[in-house]
Amino acid sequence: MTSALTPLDQSQLDDLRTAFDQRETNRIAMNAVTQAGIDQVAHNYDRSRLVQHRFSVSIDNGKVTSQAHSGRCWLFSSLNVARFAARRALNIDASSPANPMGDFELSQNYAMYYDKLERVNYFLRDMAALVRAGEPTDSQLMQFLLGDVMGDGGQWIMAMNIYKKYGAVPKPYYPETASSRNTGELDHQLRRLLHQAVAHMVAEPAKIDRIIADTTRAGHRILTIHLGTPPTSFDWEWTDKDGVFHRDGRITPQEFWKKYVDAGLEDYVCLVDDPRREHPKGIKIGIEHLGNVAGGDPTEYLNVPVDFMKDCARRLMADQGLPVWFGADCHPMMDRKMGQWATDLFEYGRVYDVDFDMNKEERVRFGDSAQNHAMAFVGVDVADDGTTTNRWRVENSWGGDIANQGYFTMSDDWFTEYVYEVAVPKAMLPEEYRRAFDQPAIMLPAWDPMGALA
C-alpha cells in the first residue's frame, strides 16, 4: 500500500518555498509567530475585550480548587458541585473571610483512591471475559483497552458510582499526597501491573481467577503506598457561619455523603450533544467497556439538542441556585491566562491564510474534537427575555492564579460548538425524555468519541 504513495520531490519543495516567499504577509507572520508564538499573534483583541466577566445569575462557590498535575477534573468538578450542597447543609458561608472552616473542600484524593481501585477490578474482569472468549490480543478492541487503561479521566456517572458506594470525606481527613498532585508515576506503575496481568491471563487462562485476585491485592498495595490509607470513619465537628459549634460524633464517609452532601445528586442523569446525524436526538447512548465500578450504573447519556442543554443549565442556576457539572473540549479558542472562551477569540485562519471551516459534527467525526475536560457552571448572563443566554461563568479546577481568580467566562456560541455533556436532575426533564432513559441504549464501541473522558 505504501508503495503507491507519491513522495514530495525537489520540484515541489522548490515551488512551496517560492510560493511562500512571494507573499509578504507570510514573512510578516513568520517573523511575528517565531518570536511571540501563534496565540499572541492570532489573539483577537476586539473579541477579547467584549468577553465581560459579568453575569445576571452568579453562584458563590468559594475559592477555586486545583487538580495540580493530574487529570482528575471530573472528580474535582463533581466534588465542587457536591461541596456546594454540603455548605448549604452545614450552614457554611464560603465567601465569609471569617469562615471558621476555611476553604471547605471534599477530598479528591479519597475519591481517586477508590476510583482507581475499582478500575483495577473492572479492567481485570473485563479483560478476563475477552480472553476467555478468545478475543485476539492484536484486535482493535484489545489494543484500545490496553492502551486506554488507568488514566485519570472520567465522567459524572463514574463519579456518582464512587460516591454512592464509598461516600465522601472533608479534605483534612484525607489530604493530597505527592502522587495525587502528580499522578503520572502512579498511573504508569498501575498500567504496567495490569498489562502484565493480561499477559499472564493469555499465557495461562486456567489461572485467570488467581491472577485477578493477586493483581487486585497488588493494585491495592500500590495505591495505598502512593495515596495513604483512606479513613473508614472520622469524628465530624464544625462551626457554622453563625458561630455555632456542632458535633456529630463518629461518622462513616457513606453516612457523611448521605446526610450532608447527596442533595439529590444521585438522581442526576447525563445529557449529551452528539452532533452526528446517524444518532438521533431523544435516544439514549451507551459506550461499550466504559465504566469504573463493576455492578455500578452504566455510562449512558441521552442525546439532546444543545439548546436544551443550555436551557437546563440556565434553569438549574437561575431557578434553584445550583451549580451545573459539564464536560467540554476545553482547548479550542481558549485564553487560559485571561480565562476566556469564544469561537473567534483567535484568528488563526487569518495568520495562516487557511479557512478552518469544519462544523461540530465534522470535528467529532474526523477526530478534531471530543470531550476532554470537566468543570462546573456557576453563573450565566441571561437576556431581558428571561431565556436567551449570552455568556457563562465557569468554575475551573486549575487554581486561582489565572483567569478571574480561577473562574472563566464562556461565550454562548462557544458552548454550542464545544460543550458535549451536562448533568441534570432527571425530574426536570420532559416526560418524553424521562421515558427515553427507560429504553435500551444504542451501544457505541469503546473508541467512539462520545466515550472520551474528561
Describe this entry's structure for a reader.
- With 454 residues, the protein is α+β, with helices and mostly antiparallel strands.
- Helix content is 42%, strand content 15%.
- It contains 17 helices and 14 strands.
- The protein has helices spanning 10-22, 24-36, 38-42, 45-48, 73-90, 108-132, 140-148, 156-166, 178-181, 184-203, 208-227, 253-261, 306-320, 348-352, 360-365, 412-418, 431-436; strands at 57-58, 234-239, 245-251, 268-272, 284-287, 300-303, 324-328, 334-335, 340-341, 373-382, 389-395, 407-411, 419-425, 442-444.
- Strands 1, 4, 5, 6, 7, 8, 9, 10, 11, 12, 13 and 14 form a twelve-stranded mixed sheet that branches.
- Helix 6 runs antiparallel to helix 11 (208-227).
- The longest helix has 25 residues, at 108-132.
- The chain is globular.
- The two termini are 36 Å apart.
Write the layout of secondary structure elements.
Blueprint: H1 10-22, H2 24-36, H3 38-42, H4 45-48, E1 57-58, H5 73-90, H6 108-132, H7 140-148, H8 156-166, H9 178-181, H10 184-203, H11 208-227, E2 234-239, E3 245-251, H12 253-261, E4 268-272, E5 284-287, E6 300-303, H13 306-320, E7 324-328, E8 334-335, E9 340-341, H14 348-352, H15 360-365, E10 373-382, E11 389-395, E12 407-411, H16 412-418, E13 419-425, H17 431-436, E14 442-444
Parallel strand pairs: 4-6, 5-14, 9-12
Antiparallel strand pairs: 1-10, 2-3, 4-13, 5-6, 7-10, 7-13, 8-9, 10-11, 11-12
Helix pairs in contact: 6-10, 6-11, 10-11
Task: Briefly summarize what is shown.
With about 450 residues, the protein is α+β, with helices and mostly antiparallel strands.
